[in-house]
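Tokens for Tubulin polymerization-promoting protein family member 3. Go.
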Amino acid sequence: MAGSTEMASLEESFRKFAIYGDTKATGQEMNGKNWAKLCKDCKVTDGKSVTSTDVDIVFSKVKGKTARVINYEEFKKALEELAPKRFKDKSKEEAYEAICHLVAGKEPINVGVTKAKTVGAVERLTDTSKYTGSHKERFDESGKGKGKSGRENIVDTSGYVSAYKNAGTYDAKVKK
């Protein structure tokens, strides 16, 4: 069988794939979707000797009748089932070690994750230096939003009419 350090990294890979894409997952059980992703990302599925159908069949075989997930022990059984199929030229033990070596230390790959681009119209529309009117008031000189103070009308409670240019000059006129 494989060494203890390889088994630890195999278990770590199981946990990483088990929690992938599920915020409530504990890492103790893996669903079929994540099992298929593990097989695809770790190159267990090669499209010739091991296909995605084989991966699904093995998952159904090792899980309990009414269960929808597999634990770590069932995961190792599933790898044992796939090993002779993937490595036909090796003995059962050598094939299991080879398949464990494929999976150990790997983690889910995020392929096809879309990156946001600002080009053309989007860049022009998000440039705060070109804003006018009331929209311009919502941003400071650097283009950073002012938050609530930029969105709300803050009431002037000084007693003068709003936008009165000579506010605070009354006392100066009366003393004369």
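The chain has two domains: 1-103, 114-153.
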